[in-house]
């Protein structure tokens, strides 16, 4: 069985999506995001913070009962008072985070084919649990966004070094969609235009980014980015 939490929540069994009740969805998502066992009381408190402890515990028991009916194999295992996803469940978030860490680790690096790297850009572009507004997800989303920003920028630079300009530009734009104010990704996008000889596109991107910063934050791009544009336009 496979659990997908990048983008919309989906549980796949035998190649087909499984209908998962809301309570069980929240429980499985919590385990998938945390990636480790969680004490029953902590799980109940995080998933149902607006409820009394007794009501939250009852909701947890109901969610556990729902999870036992999802497939031929157990999806939640317990050890004492701790709960976790069964080892038979693969999670897309874990796999993508593992690939991102390898990419960002200079001693190891990520051994992958061009198709694998293109797929990784697509996976890193997906938000964590699209459409969910649970309070416990706020910090987890920040962690995911921070990791995928660095990974997308690293991929964009790697593609640029290989003269894969389209892939580099797509990875850089994916990073700007995660954080439109972050300069690093915009600078890489400008460098891609410059490498292709598209000076006008580079300047246009810079001007649009500068307008965004001035309109929303009342700040200007860094001196480094301004010098990059100056070098392009005076060469």
Topology, please?
Elements: E1 2-4, E2 10-13, E3 16-18, H1 22-34, E4 38-39, H2 40-47, H3 53-67, E5 76-79, E6 82-85, E7 90-91, H4 92-104, H5 114-124, H6 137-161, H7 165-178, H8 183-195, H9 199-216, H10 223-234
Parallel strand pairs: 1-7
Antiparallel strand pairs: 1-2, 2-3, 4-6, 5-6
Helix pairs in contact: 1-3, 2-3, 4-6, 5-7, 6-7, 6-8, 7-8, 8-9, 9-10
Written account of the structure:
- Residues 91-233 form the Bacterial transcriptional activator domain.
- Keywords: Two-component regulatory system.
- It is a single chain.
- The protein is elongated, with a radius of gyration of 22 Å.
- α2 crosses α3, α6 (137-161) packs antiparallel against α7 (165-178) and α7 (165-178) runs antiparallel to α8 (183-195).
- The longest helix has 25 residues, at 137-161.
- It is built from ten helices and seven strands.
- With 235 residues, it is of the alpha+beta class.
- The mean pLDDT is 93.
- It is 60% helix and 9% strand.
């Amino acid at each position: 069985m496979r659990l997908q939490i990048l983008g919309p929540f989906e549980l796949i069994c035998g190649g087909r999506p499984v209908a998962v009740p809301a309570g069980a969805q929240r429980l499985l998502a919590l385990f998938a995001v945390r990636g480790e066992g969680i004490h029953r009381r902590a799980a109940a408190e995080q998933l149902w913070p607006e409820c009394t402890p007794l009501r939250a515990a009852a909701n947890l028991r109901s969610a556990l009962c729902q999870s036992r009916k999802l497939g031929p194999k157990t999806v939640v295992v317990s050890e004492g008072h701790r709960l976790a996803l069964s080892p038979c469940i693969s999670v897309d978030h874990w796999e993508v985070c593992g690939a991102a860490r390898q990419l960002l680790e200079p001693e190891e690096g990520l051994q992958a084919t061009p198709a694998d790297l293109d797929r990784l850009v697509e996976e890193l572009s997906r938000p964590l649990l699209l459409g969910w507004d649970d309070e416990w997800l706020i910090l987890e989303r920040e962690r995911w966004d921070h990791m995928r920003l660095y990974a997308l920028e690293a991929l964009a630079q790697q593609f640029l070094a290989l003269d894969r300009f389209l892939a580099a530009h797509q990875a850089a734009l994916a990073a700007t969609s995660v954080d439109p104010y972050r300069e690093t990704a915009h600078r890489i996008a400008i460098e891609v235009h410059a490498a292709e000889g598209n000076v006008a596109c580079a300047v246009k991107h810079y001007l649009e980014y500068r307008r965004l910063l001035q309109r929303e934050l009342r700040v200007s791009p860094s001196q480094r980015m301004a010098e990059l544009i100056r070098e392009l336009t005076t060469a």
